[in-house]
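Re: duplicated header lines in exported structure tokens

Our pipeline writes sequence and tokens for each protein into one text file. With two proteins the header for the second block appears twice in some exports. Here is an export where it did not happen, for reference. First protein block:
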Amino acid sequence: MTCLHTPSRRMALGLIGATLVLPRAASAGGLDTVSGSAFGTHWRIAAPAGSGIARLAPGIDSLFAEVDRQFSPWRSDSAISRFNTGPAGLHTTGPALIAVTAAALDIAERSAGAFDPTVGPLVARWGFGPIDRGGAPDWRGLSAGPAGLAKARAGLTLDLCGIAKGWALDRAADLARAAGFENLLLDLGGEFIALGRHPDGRDWRLAVEAPLTSGPPPAALRLPDGAAAATSGMRAQSYSLNGRLYSHIIDPGARSPVAGGLRSVTVVARDALTADGWATALCAAGEEAGPALAERHDIAALFLIEDQGAVHEIRTGPIAEVIL
């Protein structure tokens, strides 16, 4: 995910290119849309024409503002920043931060540390994040429980940028359901969750953008009711130096940006938090270990790998069921 923050205009423009998009044909007649900005990127909702979707906008804006106050490492007054600058031991905090941290630690364990929510100082070292203090990553030094969050040493920091946007999208879907909306597609910075069906009576559809260049979409997906999709990859934040591409996706084992030809991973899951977290984990695992990890956990994933100027796919789990 894009790290939750309010960036400069220059950085925001570099972050907005999403790797999943609503196809133009799907965004034509028969739909109303409403949109806004959050976390240095965009949000958008598409729904059947005449459904009154615009009335959701104030609630979505308020929801995302609260998420930012909880999870943004760019804000010194956020709940996560207070935890990061605090001493070792137990910290009382809100249920949202506890729940997302618990989910992050679960994926960290299941991915053997490919997803590491303590990787923030390494992200900053390579020029992509604000957590410029703290020692070596060690997700096992964190714990989450009903009483709050605990860390084994003062220098340990928490970075939920690889999963919190998915959680925010799930909460937006909850808000829409509570308001009585049954058919819509929510987009938060290129992560999507579908409710119901398109006005044409079919599942909602997405296009997977070319991972680095403006070529034709390499794949299209359908999202059944309740399903979510997220992509992690090089397109959102990366730079080239001496012929090598450096991205914001950090390999915790190597303590450096992911190397090799893997350019993006798209995951379809039962909720956006799961899709977001596993897309991050599989991308961090790399082009060899990532597909093996996805197969082991039966994750619906599409890997796009560049080799000598050509891009090829690896499909895992039930992803074939949703590729058009």
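Second protein block, exported in the same file:
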Amino acid sequence: MTVPTIPLNTGYRIPQLGLGTYKMLDDDAEQAVAYALEIGYRHIDTAQMYGNEAAVGRGIAASGVPREEIFITTKLDNPNHEPEVARRSFAESLEKLGTDYVDLFLIHWPLPDQYGGDYLSTWKTLEEFAADGRARSIGVSNFQQHHLETIIEGSETVPAVDQIELHPYFQNQVVAEFCRENGIAVEAWAPLVRGIVADEASVASIAEQHNCTTAQAVLAWHLAKGHIIFPKSVHRQRLEENLAAAQIQLTVDQVEQISSLDRGELGRTGMHPDTMERVKGSIGDK
């Protein structure tokens, strides 16, 4: 099964649909990664924060899929922003993953109240990893427009990716549009909004028209919008269903129907990057 790829501003291409490993326990991560690669996934997303990089590495090794065919993303944990700590933790990530390079390395959060609000020094450390080839592309996660502007104006490298919360209820339009205008690919975390979007009548109707699940309909919406997604699952059937979403082509009207579900900031499920707190009255605040 073929998954479309998207060009990054570094010249590399990233599979538009992959496997996320957030909160996966070691055994689950190892087995899910191995099976996902066996059935055709070629993009695996993990993070230092998840504590499962070694298990992901074992799953990759067990799959038998050649390393050069796999796109691996990991992320810098919040306590590791100091340049020397970032260097050490990145080397540890490579060792745990069993590889001498990653395809994408991200700063996980901008952390406005830590390190004196200085994420630019951390970014310049990531530039070192790109320069020596240990990170083919570098990017950020949960960065707002003003964070991105600071990096673009203060460094030599435009981030290849911004991985942000983005789904039908919270389409993060200001950040997403800024990324598009500046050649930054948009990755969407929480693409299925914890599954609650499945209760929407319009989503159920679209799923019925395509003889697919509501989750597949939402994933197909993301793909139609050009987002990079990596839904998480440890269940084989769900892994297969998520991968099959890449074959579903929504109509323009169906894409617009799902896009109309946007609730703005009240649709957030996670923390706001500027405050590291939930937005009052939002989905995540309930």
